[in-house]
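pasting Putative SOS response-associated peptidase YedK for the record, 226 residues
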Amino acid sequence: MCGRLSLFAPEADLTERFDAVPTRPIRPRYNVAPGQDHPVVRNDAPDEMHFPTWGFVPHWADEFGGGHINARAETLAEKPTFRDAYRERRCLVLADGFYDWKKTATGKQPYRMTRADGKPFAMAGLWEPWQNGEQKTSFTVVTTEPNDLVGEIHHRMPVILAEDEESRWLHDDEEEFESVLDTFPGNEMRAYPVSKRVNSPKNDSPELVAEVMAEEDAQTGLGDFS
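structre below
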């Protein structure tokens, strides 16, 4: 799964990295939640960053809201909700980290996961236009089986694209996608516990990405031996 995102790299760095210009200013975000806008690069406008709403709302839906935040890579071509977008409306979801929650004896501990080098990356996504008196756009993050690192935290993870896979995801034929929708290597990632303040979408500050002692370790005294 992928339940929250962060993206606070400077706009100039993102423009250079993804060779795309934002359609509006990008502000640092430390806790992007479903239902909020977020920058993506769409296959129909690869030189621009657009800001759809996170939560895929099919174009036939009566209302805009409560969309699918994730879509399983294994069934994209089969699910009526996603199959047209899979063929025609793919995007890069930009991030420098994502959050998920690990079940522990003391509750759910949030973890932030990043590339080991801390650089921004692109996740495979799908986007969808919606019109019912007004025009809106939404997106979802494609997920797959986790690597060993993420698997200790959750049973799914986003499809993180290698740089040479980003253009292929946007522009290749559907038959070529299977090799792109794979699991990113765990030895190229980092995962660490963060404050439970990330649980609330109202909180969005640099402190949320700081590493903390996992509550489970604190209560068992394991921190004394670190």
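The CA atoms of residues 160 and 184 lie 6 Å apart.
The chain has a mean pLDDT of 93.
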